[in-house]
From TrEMBL:
It comes from the Bacteria. Residues 189-278 form the Peptidase M20 dimerisation domain. This is M20 family metallopeptidase. PANTHER family: METALLOPEPTIDASE, PUTATIVE (AFU_ORTHOLOGUE AFUA_6G09600)-RELATED, PEPTIDASE M20 FAMILY MEMBER. NCBIfam families: amidohydrolases.
Amino acid sequence: MNFKECAKEIEKDIIKWRRNLHQIPEIGLDLPQTSDYVQMRLKEMGIEYKTLVNGSAIVALIGEKNQGKTIALRADMDALPIKEETGVLYSSKNGNMHACGHDAHTAMLLGAAKILKDNEHLLKGTVKLLFQPGEEGFAGAKHMIEEGALESPKVDNIVGLHIGAPSKGVPDGKVIVNYGKTMTCLDKFYLKIKGIGAHGAYPELGVDPVTISAQVIGALQCIVSREKGGPEPAIITVGKINGGTAFNIIPEFIEMEGTARFVDQGLREQAAKRIGEISTGIAKAMRGDCEYEYEFGYPPLVNSKEITEKFIKSAQKIVGSENIIEMERPIMGGEDMAFFLQEVPGTFFFLASSEYDSEGNFISSHNPKFNISEDVLHIGTALFVQTVFDFLNM
């Protein structure tokens, strides 16, 4: 069966679903309209499902339960608190925005659901469809796992995708894969550098937390440049600094927040320790003090080499070998698909779809002008379906 042709036949439906979802973007773990929309489509298809995470997550089943293997397909559904500036007719109606393509992920999985249900009698196992809330910083995958999404029946393998391109210049429709460490952790840290307030004209009477903070920021970069060997990518970024009340007053304290990104768990744990040690050491050496908190967020996303190799064989049937690209290095962004991949062997791939402004500048995700090429949506659906049949029927 040519699943690419099957997906092309329902392309108008997939696009319609995506545009409808695009107009009702919702944030975090509370997606009542989005969840209701997906549930209605599943009911129309005659697909059995249940809800989790207070009704915002959906787990649907297709195939012969408890016979053969079970493969899960995952799509995230949440949006971002961004005001849309695309100008498309189907723009968001509520001030939020699908600026990361999750509307497309959901629509492509609905397309796969339709084709799989129509061919359910040919499946030698079970397909579990995971429609997930809260990817954008709310750990929706973790919540679903805790509520049993990977059980009854137990999932053997899992596959997910992300639309868009990790960088500019990747032609639409290319499939981007990685055999192992694919995306970094998404961690956060907080520092409060404490000094003693004083008049700006008499710094010797105080302890300047601004000066201490400047030393800390520079020193933190040495964790990456001087304490890490090998090719493993790593980033420590201080993204927020706050403190002070006037130009001529040395404040009592400075607060800083930042992010740490690692694909290696050992480096991650080392950095969590060293950020605190370095910051506290510098602060005390300069007569101040430091409060420190480190939040372990999404773990590194690591694909199974075996499952990725199997997926590539399936993808070749849909797009051809010439349209499959292997990533040269991990992406420095985080993804909570990593929680699923900690529990079940699987793979997470990218389906390229790029947007450029009138001056030819690449528009990345999380941008108010972000959009996708809808011409590739049927490809994502076909990749899901081909993978399912190859995994279950091999």
